[in-house]
Known about the structure:
Layout: E1 14-15, H1 16-23, H2 27-37, E2 43-44, E3 50-52, H3 54-68, H4 73-79, H5 103-110, H6 114-128, H7 130-150, H8 156-177, E4 186-192, H9 199-210, E5 214-222, H10 224-234, E6 238-242, H11 249-262, E7 268-272, E8 285-288, H12 293-304
Parallel strand pairs: 4-5, 4-6, 6-7, 7-8
Antiparallel strand pairs: 1-3, 2-3
Amino acid sequence: MSIRGDPPDIDELIPITEVERLTGIRQATLRMWEKRYGFPQPLRDRHGDRVYPPVQVERLHAARRLMDQGLRPGKIFTSVLASGVSGVDAVFPLPASVPGQYRHVFALLRDYRIAELHGLFQHRLLDLGLRRFVIEYLAPLVTEVGLAWNRGELPVRCEHLFAQASTSALHAKQAAVRAAGDGRPKAILATLSGEPHALGILMAEAVMTSLGMNCIPLGADVPSVEVAAAARETGADIVALSFSAYFPRRSMLRLTASLRTSLPPATMLWIGGEGVRGTAPEAGIERFLALEGIEIALQAWRKAHPNADSVRWYRP
Length: 316
């Protein structure tokens, strides 16, 4: 790497002792990298001591993160930092296949810029409202993140970070719009044992909540016997489950068929998520291939139960 353009102001230059404190990289290591890899490239103060521009310290932070993730310095510097690229782009270049409207999200994930990601989600929530945010923005983004991970273009740590940020945004918004009281239909929401991916059922809960449904979330990885017990104890009208594309197809069919027989006949069983694509319809089980289907199914339920207690709908 070479230093081009206007030189940094002397007050911005960071002494090597401070760089060691900020990055956790020992001074001897910095000098060794300088000699072996040609990076960093310090300047000298009036005493001849090494001082570093802030941009180089940022790249050293990126190098430290990558080393903590198991990468060797040689690969980091020769493939990335020496050419001016930083962060997880070292190993996972941002693919051209990512749609333009989502590239900024990928960049924030790769750089661990959590505050900016939360701010972006909050802005989109205010702009679209909860239901449209989930259906029009978040659900397609979830698909893109999953595809990028599946193709090896996004590390799993970034996928997990995305799930946590999305979950946080949805929880915060749902608390503000959740309908009060014990209205109907009442829905138990969960993923079954072996399914740790909870974002799908959380998005479904957000849509249901915005439509005025009374949601009782049990969370992820719940045994089917516990889901059935909760449905009986609460008098739930609906049990809603989500299955990711990674859940074994045979297990899903077996578990949902068993749960159907354990539920009261009047309790509906709704299943959705990427894992249900391509499955054949089963008696007593309603499949959802898209979140938009929830509103249609709710209208059908209300039409079939005209005397059910109603609650106000949240309209974004």
